[in-house]
Amino acid sequence: MARPIVIGLEVHLQLNTKTKLFCSCSTDYIGRTPNTNVCPICLAVPGTLPLLNDSAVALASRMGIGLRCKIQNYSTFGRKNYFYADLAKAYQITQYELPVATGGYLEIEVNGETKVVRLHHLHLEEDAGKLVHPTTDGRLTGAAYSLVDYNRGGVPLTEVVSEPDMSSPAEAKEYVSRLRQLARYLDVSDGEMESGSLRVDANISLSKPDGSLGTRVEIKNMNSFKSIERALEYEISRQNKVLDSGGRIVQETRLWDDAEGVTRSMRNKETASDYRYYPEMDLAPVVIDDSEIEDFRRRMPELPWEKRERFAAFGLTKEEISILTEQRELARYYEDVVSAGAPPARAANWVRMEVLRVLNELGIDITGFKVKPGALAELVKKVEAKELSNTLGKEILDVLAREDISLADAVKRSGASAGRLTGASLDEIIKKIVSANPDVVETIKNGEDKKGGKIKFLQGLVMKEARGQADPKEAAESLAKNLDL
Ligand code: ADP
Ligand code: MG
Ligand code: ZN
Fold first, then answer.
1. Could you report the per-residue pLDDT of 428-477, keeping only the tens digit for each?
2. Separation of 214 CA from ligand 1 center, angstroms?
């Protein structure tokens, strides 16, 4: 019998602050010269004192509100001691006993079913620096030393700790995806896994036959959604094999090796006592009074699920809604197209199919898209009014997205107004050809046009009748539609 899977996730999000958690160094460390965003505080020079960054508290609270946590009026920092070169102080300042937010939940949807994942808490902590291993030609030299870069040391993180409520890798992936979406909607974090502003530690166990929880293993080092799923799949089968052969699971931390597709034991799981947690006496408790919490609440933007609900009123399908609301900026673009007068359902189709296609081709996101919502709305309306064919409309969108040209000029250049036959006039020609050739039509409809010669013949007649002013692809499509093919 299959053993039930139990997964709980710890997700670290780098908070969108300008400066570090306890000093005024910049948080912009990507691509910087090592050890240039540092100061005596984040380098732990004796005699310096940390000073808490209020914006980090505000952002963590905002995330907590989005996750329906209870924001605590009183929370504290502690020291988590471990000796490793990436940690200048040899301890990390983190919230431990009293975190800034507790409880809460996040809803996920897998295979059409909604599931509630409860949260344990959300806390603030500082990031560590990075070890840099010397390389030649991109390969480890096996040098007897490592270098350390403290630019990231002290950057504010919030860690969201779930209850062990997920029961498949797909649910875990969906959970991280919803969490990232929320963080982005709230401007709390950019949530980029590749650059490390979203990092996931996954805890996974297989339950015993009596239903009680099994021993869990923690997996680290996954840096994509795909690798979260793969690492968990791998770990499920590894644990099953160990248990099947009568072995036991050891509680440990394992690292995911993406190239090999395996997890490897890194170290036995530390317990709280290994870290010798104790209160951070250099920092006062974080006090957030009720009026401040109210203030955070008032300033909350629209949340992803609120937006989804509102979009349902446009009469869109569930799938359309989920694609259009995935990214806040795309949702805004769509709404602007609708406010500019495009019918909601048509606009949804255009944004979802055509705009996303063009963005993909250009390798940009909606914030860099040249076509203003008003122009797209005009274009959609022209296609709706059959002033332009669908095909021509798409071609014009391609032009608008790539060149600095107005909609009117793009339409003119496309030949639509220079006698190019589209929509209604093309339809008329097709009807004429179809009724003039009943035998050929009959053959095609009976499925006897195996080599496609007859349909080509009709296409040729249509093009001839249109005197070369129809788009061949569009003519072929309209003809097929007319013949119910
Ligand atoms: P620690 O303090 O050692 O990090 P926690 O009790 O805080 O341990 O749990 C860390 C994470 O592990 C949480 O997300 C929790 O949901 C998850 N977890 C706890 N027990 C299990 C288990 N038996 N199987 C899977 N995940 C678990
Ligand atoms: Mg933990
Ligand atoms: Zn600093």
1. 888 888 999 899 899 888 888 888 888 888 888 887 777 656 777 778 88
2. 11
Interacting residues of 143 by C-beta distance below 8 A, sequence separation 6+: 133, 134
Q: In this structure, are residues 210 and 197 in contact, taking their beta carbons and an 8 Å threshold?
A: no
Structure-block tokens of residue 249: 């699971």
Please state whether the predicted TM-score (pTM) of the whole model is above 0.70: yes
In single-letter form, the type of residue at position 91 comes to Y
The CA distance from 367 to 373, in Å, is 12
Most confident by average pLDDT, 59-63, 145-149, 191-195, 265-269: 59-63
Quote the radius of gyration of the chain (alpha carbons, Å): 30
Residues with CB under 6 A from ligand 1: 6-10, 161-164, 203-205, 213, 216
Over residues 118-170, the pLDDT tens digits come to 999 999 999 999 998 776 665 656 677 889 999 999 999 999 999 999 999 99
Residues around the ion ligand 3 (C-beta < 5 A): 23, 25, 39, 41-42
Cβ neighbors of 353 (< 8 A, separation 6 or more) are none
Contact predicate 463/472, CB 8 Å? yes
Distance CA 132, CA 146 (A): 6
Q: Report the alpha-carbon distance of residue 153 to residue 130 in Å, rounded.
A: 8
Task: Give how far the C-alpha of residue 363 lies from the chain's centroid of Cα atoms, to the nearest Å.
Answer: 16
Instruction: Tell me the best of 9, 216, 235 to mutate to test the pocket of ligand 1, counting ligand atoms within 8 Å of each CB and taking the most.
Output: 216
The number of the ligand nearest the C-alpha atom of 172 reads 1
CATH numeric code, 423-482: 1.10.10.410
Judge contact between 198 and 204, C-beta under 8 A.
no
Looking from the CA of residue 205, the nearest atom of ligand 1 is: 24
Ligand 3 centroid to Cα of residue 18, in Å, is: 12
Largest pairwise CA distance in the chain = 97
CB 159 within 8 A of CB 12: yes
Phi (first) and psi of residue 330, to 5 degrees: -70, -40
Specify which residues 12 forms β-bridges with: 159, 199
The residue whose C-alpha atom lies closest to atom 2 belonging to ligand 1 is: 272
Residue 94, phi then psi, degrees to nearest 5: -150, 160
